[in-house]
Structure prediction request, 589 residues.
Amino acid sequence: MFETWKPGAVRLSTPTSEATERLDVRAVSPADLDRRLANHSDLIAISLTHMSWITTTLMGVPHAVFLVDADGIILHSIGNDSQRMADFAIFPAYDWSEEQMGKNGAGSAIVHNRPVAVVGPESISSPFDDCTCTGAPIRAADGQVIGAIAVNTCVNEGTPERLVFVAHSAFIIEQELLHRLAGRANKYQQLQHTTIRILAETYNLHDAAPRLLRTLAESLSLRWGAIWRIDTNLNIMRCVETWHDSDDAIAGFDAATRATMLEKGSGLAGRSWDRETPLWSFDLVTDLSPERYEAALLAGFDGGLAFPIRNGVEILGAVEFFDGQTFDHDPDFFRAMDTIGSQVGLFIQRRDAEIALAERQLEYSTLAETVPGILFSANGNVRLQKQPLDLRELLLRTCETWKTFFESSSQELNLSIVSHPILVHGDPVRIEQVVSNLLSNANKFTPQGGKVSVELSQSNATSVILFQDNGSGIDEELIPHVFELFVQGDNSLDRTKGGLGIGLTLVQKLVELHEGQVKVSSYHFSSSKREKHEAAPHEAQRNAIYRTSGIVILLSLVAMGTHLFLLPRTVQASLNRFNFLFWMEWVAV
Prediction:
């Protein structure tokens, strides 16, 4: 009759009779043992068969067979001598390291990294010296000792053949462990290749997500998966796609997940976002909301896995899986999941950029088609698509688009933007074109190493946008004609930075279409003086403008009921290259 203690069946009983006085036993906590069992799941699974084979071979000999980790903590034990197992604390969780138990087969095999046979461990005296403990280390692929297998018998059974027997068993365990890890590494590599193929065959995440989740879940024997995306405006996560098998019990968990929003650090996916690393969890009470927790119990889920979706260093979301089984703790597994998360993140970034580019091309193609009408037609012949828009968001988006151009020109683009939204009423495409044209001029005519700054602020009932650069300025004689069609400041033959001379004319027309007025002021700087050329509407505005040169946009705030809307009242814009000052008198409606 064999006495077997399996992983998880922790028996923390102290030795009885005289052994209690002669054996200084120590055991790790149940939580610590659980962690060790999870970390060595492959080693334990492979060793079980060989330990059963050893104990069958030694059926006629009183014995105990046990497996320890690299710290000497017993992970599993089996044998037919229950008294010996009790006297020597050969149960999971007990410490059989050489430091704790003295010289012994398991602990000494780890310390000396070779098979050993210890007759009568020095820390155990009569009447327990009738003991031979034979052990052999178990090594990983890199040669590092990860544990040991040992056999405890009486002294006269400690033969040299027994030592060879145990050493051979350890060697076979090592080979099977290497084979299993190699097969798993190949499986993970195939998953990564499959992920790349799925992403290459689909246009966007909406199309790719169901195939991707199903492939990962079925390959890893999982039952439910989801993709979460981060809403950067609200700084929360939303579930955008899910997949699950045909089990009707999972449908409730799926519905609860789709109705859930996660904050950073909240829930399993939120913690993966916060820590920027793959995570596993068996603590569903902590990692699930009450609604999802109840649904998870009905679905039979015991644990979960989450890994971040990233494009380089920025986290875009997370992939989450749940199932009714324990998850692999192999570091290669988590590295593979992290790689897949990066592949998905780069796919999202590329597709978002392509979509944004297509939308931008459509906007500008539409704009290009209407440019002749804007430049040459009366105001009434061109219709603006006015709508409430966030000036802050528009400014940030447009500057982000131009950031690469400034960086490639070794120019510094500095932003100083208010933290709250500023709503205005206007045509977003036209206003963005005004901003883009002025940024383009700053980029063209600011030297390498120069600085361009964009500020958005609010003073009393007025919001202010200011563009500044340290460019070359504009000649005095050109100031009256700067908004005329085809007029350009660079008249040299080598006009590598010049355009068609319609950009500022277009800016003026677009401003006028918003019922505004455009004027220009230019500052010239030298080592000895500052010269100014101006056409300012009145003294108060002139004083405000001279303190900060650049593009200035002033917007009035109009309260309507319980809502606060920002409607343009006065817009001024200047650029140091030309130091333009544009004033737009917009009527509040």
Remarks:
- The longest strand covers residues 314-323.
